[in-house]
Specification:
By secondary structure, the chain is an alpha/beta fold. The protein folds into two domains: 128 residues, Response regulator (Rossmann fold, 3-Layer(aba) Sandwich); 172 residues, 3-Layer(aba) Sandwich (Rossmann fold). It is built from eleven helices and twelve strands. The strands form two sheets. The protein has a six-stranded parallel sheet, with helices on both faces. The chain has a six-stranded mixed sheet with strand order 7-6-8-9-10-12, sandwiched between helices. Strand 8, helix 8 and strand 9 form a beta-alpha-beta unit.
Length: 355
């Protein structure tokens, strides 16, 4: 009887352990199935081709790639990028993106405008999108994305004028274009607006690096400006603008960043940045395309009203008084009390209106 009782107990324990293990396995399988069913599944593929600044330009190429990475994380779409070392790479890189059967191909920067048009013509079944370009006539499979860059540029120009001790500030552009005009003349107008408010004469020295990738050229121009009494220099020069920030750090002067908050490059020397939330725009447009919405044949325009541009909230280097005044200026832009100029003609008219 004792042997039989021991045998019965052993059988019951074995059955209990087996049942428990089976229950745990079933529970684990159910959890895995639930996790798998919750993960986004999509065959949509998107790629981007950088301009010559490269994907780590600390500016709009990098921001664009971050936007694609975010939409990939949120939806599961496949994303890739290809860097262009020189302008002649644009066509080759766009062809490769098409051969990889991407549904949406981004060109980052207005310099790629012709290459995007040609690629779209050759591949009518693929959607193309381009940052910082609005075509006069946009093909049905092309989407333009532009920003009213003159709005944050006006704001940082106002800040520069309120902050300068020498009465002389600078601007370094990458290459002359309609897009960079927005930065230059928006900035100059903001300086002029603040100068009138202060009752001072504040001048702007504007020069161009003729490059969006040559940091040494940007640094040389800015260093020269600092040596000639400029104490604040704003750049809209992509990778070349990183050199402007390096020059500010070495001269112990201020630089103003662009496209993204560039304070991390020189925390004690980047006064503020003219933000363009390029990554957010890339994310929004890509999501619409992935959701099957028609995005081609039109241009998306983003500005302060859409919270797509602005300046960083952190403002230790300028202080509360200047920052709060800049926020008031931004509100005036939003309600159209102030309309920042986007080119020289508009700027000339704006300056006359201040007199």
């Amino acid at each position: 009887m004792k042997k039989f009782a021991a045998l019965l107990l052993a059988v019951m324990m074995t059955f209990s352990v087996t049942a428990c293990t089976a229950q745990q396995a079933a529970s684990s399988k159910t959890a895995e199935e639930s996790k798998a069913s919750a993960a986004p599944k999509t065959d949509f593929k998107a790629a981007m081709v950088t301009d010559t600044g490269g994907v780590n330009d600390q500016s709009f190429n990098q921001s664009s790639w971050e936007g694609l990475q975010k939409i990939s994380k949120d939806t599961g779409i496949e994303v890739k990028y290809t860097e262009s070392k020189q302008e002649s790479d644009y066509v080759t890189n766009l062809d490769k993106a098409a051969d990889d059967e991407n549904n949406l191909i981004w060109g980052i920067g207005f310099a790629m405008s012709d290459a995007i048009l040609n690629a779209a013509k050759q591949n009518p079944d693929i959607n193309y999108a381009i940052v910082d370009m609005a075509y006069e006539k946009t093909p049905e499979n092309v989407t333009g994305v532009v920003f009213r860059a003159q709005e944050p540029s006006f704001t940082v120009g106002y800040i520069a004028a309120k902050t300068t001790k020498t009465g002389k500030v600078g601007f370094v552009g990458g290459q002359h274009s309609n897009v960079i005009d927005q930065f230059e003349y928006g900035y100059k107008a903001g300086v002029a607006y603040a100068a009138k408010e202060l009752g001072k004469n504040i001048t702007v020295d504007a020069q161009y690096a003729e490059s969006f990738s040559d940091a040494s050229k940007g640094k040389a121009i800015a260093s020269s400006m600092f040596s000639k009494n400029c104490d604040i220099v704003f750049h809209a020069a992509g990778g070349a603008g990183v050199g402007v920030i390096q020059a500010a750090k070495e001269a112990n002067k201020f630089a103003i960043g662009v496209d993204r908050d560039q304070a991390y490059l020189a925390p004690e020397n980047v006064l503020t940045s003219a933000l363009k939330h390029v990554g957010h725009a890339v994310e929004l447009v890509t999501k619409e395309a992935a959701d099957g919405k028609k995005i081609g044949g039109k241009t998306y325009a983003y500005g302060l009203t859409e919270d797509a541009v602005g300046i960083p909230e952190k403002h230790d280097l300028m202080g509360d008084e200047v920052y709060n005044a800049a926020m008031e200026v931004q509100n005036k832009i939003k309600d159209k009390t102030i309309t920042p100029p986007a080119n020289k003609e508009q700027y000339d008219g704006y300056v006359k209106s201040l007199k």
